[in-house]
Amino acid sequence: MTALNLRDATLDDLDWIAEQEAAIFGSSAWSRDSIAADLQASDRRRIWLRRYVVVESDEERVGYAVFGFESDVFSLFNLAVVPEARRRSVGAFLLDRFFDEARSLRVREVGLEVAVDNAPALALYRSHGFEEVRVRRRYYQHGDRDAVVMRRRL
């Protein structure tokens, strides 16, 4: 397997992330403007707005994740893998880095919300120890889909 490398996203990644958001998440995608605002926030790591990370394989971007604090829970806001790389464990790699980041911050619980009809994502998260807490009706992204709220103790 080709090595995967993780790095913080920069404004140079903006067009690619926005394109992947639209292709992968459709109408639930975050807007290019909101992604740009997050990437330009100079204090985003200090106060933990959303932190974007990019995974590369042979200098080709194959996925990204967005995480940070939501209330008092360290949350995975987004995890995306380009279709061509989905069988290369990129999602598991991103989750492992998410857990590493949480542990470095001494976080005891992590969380996420995923659309109820996203079976591959639900399976990935369950296989990494997340448990379902509840379903939020008409909540996911733009409010047109239900979301499964998941948590994992570290």
If you had to describe this structure to a student in words, what would you say it looks like?
The protein is α+β, with helices and mostly antiparallel strands and 154 residues long. The chain has a single domain (4-153), classed as Aminopeptidase, CATH 3.40.630. The protein is 29% helix and 38% strand. The protein contains four helices and seven strands. It has helices spanning 14-25, 32-40, 90-104, 119-127, and strands spanning 4-8, 51-57, 60-70, 73-81, 109-115, 131-140, 145-153. Strands 1-2-3-4-5-7-6 form a seven-stranded mixed sheet, with helices on both faces. Helix 3 links the parallel strand 4 and strand 5 (109-115). Helix 1 (14-25) packs across helix 2 (32-40). The chain is globular and about 35 Å long. The two termini are 28 Å apart. The model has no long low-confidence stretch (mean pLDDT 85).
Estimated radius of gyration = 15 Å
Helical run tally: 4
Within the CATH hierarchy, at the fold level, what is the topology? Aminopeptidase
Report the sheet with the most strands, covering strand number, pairing sense and barrel closure.
7 strands, mixed
Broad shape: globular
Total beta-strand segments: 7
Low-confidence stretches: none
Q: What is the chain-wise order of helices and strands? A: EHHEEEHEHEE
Strand order in the largest sheet: 1-2-3-4-5-7-6
% residues in beta strands: 35-45%
Kindly, what is the distance between the CA atoms of the first and last residues, rounded to a whole number of angstroms? 28 Å
Helix content: 25-40%
* CATH-derived architecture: 3-Layer(aba) Sandwich
Compute the average pLDDT. Answer: 85
The count of domains is: 1
| Estimated structural class | alpha+beta
The CATH homologous superfamily is named Gcn5-related N-acetyltransferase (GNAT)
Query: Class in CATH?
Result: Alpha Beta
